[in-house]
Specification:
- This is Enolase-phosphatase E1.
- The chain is an alpha/beta fold.
- 44% of the residues lie in helices and 11% in strands.
- The protein is elongated, with a radius of gyration of 20 Å.
- The protein binds the ligand CSCCC(=O)C(=O)COP(=O)(O)O and magnesium ion.
- Magnesium ion binds next to loops.
């Protein structure tokens, strides 16, 4: 078996979700279709609620920033007054969400709405999150060895908590010391990793980041974070240069903690 020693200075393991802890297929075939199939009904049902209006405002702001992009869908303002028909705005939000999802965009606005929509599906037991079988045993072992374990995903913190709270392994939220999402910055920007270290209260070189995306690994490395690229069934392929350059693991069990020997 391949063994990747964890540097002695590492005390925090930072985990990506999609493609690292969780199959991409679960996200693409279960979570995302749920949004596309239910977004219109969700908006119709929750339109008058404060949370839904905040989500729409954030999407509208994002749409303004995206106006220069090919195919971007603007979201007209809605006065909220009785005479104003919300259906035109709802249609625009549906089109905007579908456009963003077709491009697999990771905007905070899209991810916030998705997190709110998944809440009902997880709470009703209609969806349970999938984790690769090596994930839970490895995380338990790391924590027993004194490591802290944090999550950093483009999925909102609320969505992350839904996944870890309602998984096929049961409620595994207690295995996580904390969560980060794009509110701290995008995963392809090195500054995000400096902010995460500062928020945890450690140096960047105390962190080992596990991700399937080399652009994220590169950004983390630029901030002096240790990285390993996770190769899982269904993940995007890596170039020969990437395979040579990065430390690769196919299972969390391949990480070796000298302190737990
Ligand atoms: C954790 S919420 C569901 C997944 C999701 O929406 C997403 O964008 C995952 O991105 P990641 O950064 O975990 O690869
Ligand atoms: Mg990922």
């Amino acid at each position: 078996m391949v063994v990747l020693p964890v540097p002695a200075e590492v005390s925090v393991i930072l985990l990506d979700v999609e493609g690292t802890t969780t199959p991409i297929a679960f996200v693409k075939d279960i979570l995302f279709p749920y949004i596309k199939e239910n977004v219109r009904e969700y908006l119709q049902t929750h339109w008058e609620e404060e949370e839904c209006q905040q989500d729409v405002s954030l999407l509208r702001k994002q749409a303004e920033e995206d106006s220069h992009l090919d195919g971007a869908v603007p979201i007209p303002a809605w006065s909220g007054s009785g005479g104003d028909d919300p259906q035109r705005t709802i249609q625009a939000v549906v089109d905007n969400v579908c456009w963003q999802m077709a491009l697999d965009r990771k905007t905070t606005a899209l991810k916030q709405l998705q997190g709110h929509m998944w809440r009902a599906a997880f709470a009703a037991g209609r969806v349970k999150a999938e984790f690769f079988e090596d994930v839970v045993p490895a995380v338990r072992k790391w924590r027993e060895a004194g490591m802290k374990v944090y999550i950093y995903s483009s999925g909102s913190v609320e969505a992350q908590k839904l996944l870890f709270g309602h998984s096929t392994e049961g409620d595994i939220l207690e295995l996580v010391d904390g969560h980060f999402d794009t509110k701290i910055g995008h995963k392809v920007e090195s500054e995000s990793y400096r902010k995460i270290a500062s928020s945890i209260g450690c140096a960047t070189n105390n962190i080992l980041f596990l991700t399937d995306v080399t652009l994220e690994a590169s950004a983390a490395e630029e901030a002096d974070v240790h990285v390993a690229v996770v190769v899982r069934p269904g993940n995007a392929g890596l170039t020969d240069d990437e395979k040579t350059y990065y430390s690769l693991i196919t299972s969390f069990s391949e990480l070796y903690l000298p302190s737990s020997a």
